Amino acid sequence: MSKLPIYAHRGVITKAPENSMAAFQQALEEQADGLEFDVQLTKDYVAIVTHDLNLKRLTGKNYQLNEVPYNQIRKLTVGKRFLKKGTTLLTFDELLAWLIPQQIPVNIELKESFIGQFAALESLVKKCGRLQHVHISSFHEDVLRDVKRINPSLETAFIPKKAFDWTSLQAAAHIDVIHANKKRYYKAKYLNAAQQAGKKVRFYNITGQENYLKNPHQTVIGWITDYPAVVYKNSVS
What we know:
alpha/beta, 9 helices
């Protein structure tokens, strides 16, 4: 079969700060077909491209992002281990301005700060209408339900945790695709459950060393990885 789409997880984070423009540009150079990135909200509802709600790991500042306004966030720098002084947290709007002309496929993971924030979510979803290839993923089913309320045609992807009941997928109209950890879920019982429910699956934590890359289960429609070049090399026929 032909190669499945490869999404770079937060860009290529081995060579640039995660969720940064440099990481995304590097991903495209390393054969990624699309980009996976995370979005959180500030106190004043500015969408920021970052994984953590607490910014200490990335910036050294013990800030809860949803408790601090954007005018403080925009002054922070990240990525000291890469010696890229002055790298700042991207806003979703800044990244979108770069994505739209190129129409790069994207997987937008909405984090916990979007729970219960319908207006901010609606704003982001409407902006996604300017992209041709986009799906929204989340660990939080309520967020995905709201996405479907705003735009029923937009593809949603649920990220299951250990306690999730896969038999419930058949009644889950708010879930189009599953984004699953390959270490836990690349097993027949989960793949078959997805297939029976009519759902497709993308797997994350892919390293490029998996023996099923060239012949994946028929429910699989893509890979999410920190190593797009390796996955590309080892998945082509």
